[in-house]
């Protein structure tokens, strides 16, 4: 709705990379924006960029010197977007807003990667002072500027106010094909297509879903890195050659943003030495913690997400560079089996299948985790909608999210993605190649923790019987922990008197 007053529609607080680009995106979509940052240089930076981009046109962004000025510049109820680092800074700005006179029906949207339980607490804590709303944002700098994937949650009344702006600034998808509609032009936002935002659920739900998105992101990235190592170290391909293979894969079922950027990174020469840039980058991975939170959450709730957890461990092992250097001189590896060109080509094809299967498993783990937490938290998560809003704008956007969308549209209560016919049949078809790729990596001594853990996940779930029967026997032996029997009603507990001379079965 057009605002005819002299007041602005929305305020953005925190003008780092994400805040600045969100502000410019909102302004591109015909909203008037007030901006504030503790650093006046950043405020000026946004204003300058707007001037450059909108020569001869009306300017829509107003810089504020402090939060009181920002509050005075906005229509009521005010909508304030926080783009500050997760943790204490969020509460710092909230406290400052209270001092500046924020009102009970004003809406504060936390767009950072906050821990979801903090969001739940904050909604409670600020009740009566203002509405603490949250919306996780995915897509990095370019996404924030030209269309991110947005995961809002919290007060439904607040969402009614925020929704038109959110739908306007979100990434857009062609609803028929499920493919992103992209245009990276300042002042010319994409207005057609389905917006990549949907109301996720009560407070914390959006941040939880974003956290799982990031867990999947960690695993997806690590899977690609493992494929790179097998092709580079195992098959002796150059970084650029691996980049070409990835480019080819990106034309098929593995098509995704992460596959595309990996190909670009691999083909990039180092401006300093002319060598492949990737070979000059120190092999120690950073992390801000969202993948770790996902793994922790999976362990706490008892949802198997081994591929996500392995991706976090892989980053941890990578940081122990000096230990790896020492152990590389001490521990033996296999003699790599020689391969002719034909065998190499077959392995490359097998690896493509392995990567696809492992990727499906990693998404299956993420969706199962969300489902179990939703049940525990009594959230009504709509998984078809979640898959839909991940089809564009976000880091894990991939063509096959359309198949995930369709799988949940066909059955909203799908217990596991592997149950969907489309994935069950493709994985069954490709599983032999998956095993060939994992076996080749193992025989070459190349670590593939994510690709192989996904295979173990697949094999575990397709096993009607697991050795947990022996495990229950062990537990009963040393700790009298009891067991159930296959031939007796569920819930009936038995214990064998292991220490007695004559071992008798006791029904408890
Ligand atoms: C996104 C990203 C973004 C960021 C993560 C992961 O969806 O836009 O997930 O939020 O890349 O914080 O960063 P780390 O790899 O540093 O943990």
TrEMBL record:
SMART domains: 6PGD. Substrate binds at residues 113, 138-140, 213-214, 218, 288, 315, 475, 481. InterPro entries: 6-PGluconate_DH-like_C_sf (IPR008927), 6PGD_dom2 (IPR013328), 6PGDH_C (IPR006114), 6PGDH_Gnd/GntZ (IPR006113), 6PGDH_NADP-bd (IPR006115), 6PGdom_BS (IPR006184), NAD(P)-bd_dom_sf (IPR036291), Pgluconate_DH (IPR006183). One of its GO terms (biological process) is D-gluconate metabolic process. The active site is at residues 210, 217. Pathway: Carbohydrate degradation; pentose phosphate pathway; D-ribulose 5-phosphate from D-glucose 6-phosphate (oxidative stage): step 3/3. SUPFAM superfamilies: 6-phosphogluconate dehydrogenase C-terminal domain-like, NAD(P)-binding Rossmann-fold domains. Its EC number is 1.1.1.44. One of its GO terms (cellular component) is cytosol. It comes from the Bacteria. Residues 206-499 form the 6-phosphogluconate dehydrogenase C-terminal domain. It catalyses: 6-phospho-D-gluconate + NADP(+) = D-ribulose 5-phosphate + CO2 + NADPH. Keywords: Gluconate utilization, NADP, Oxidoreductase, Pentose shunt. GO terms for molecular function: NADP binding; phosphogluconate dehydrogenase (decarboxylating) activity. NCBIfam families: gnd (TIGR00873), PRK09287.1 (NF006765). Belongs to the 6-phosphogluconate dehydrogenase family. Homodimer. Catalyzes the oxidative decarboxylation of 6-phosphogluconate to ribulose 5-phosphate and CO(2), with concomitant reduction of NADP to NADPH. This is 6-phosphogluconate dehydrogenase, decarboxylating. The gene is gnd.
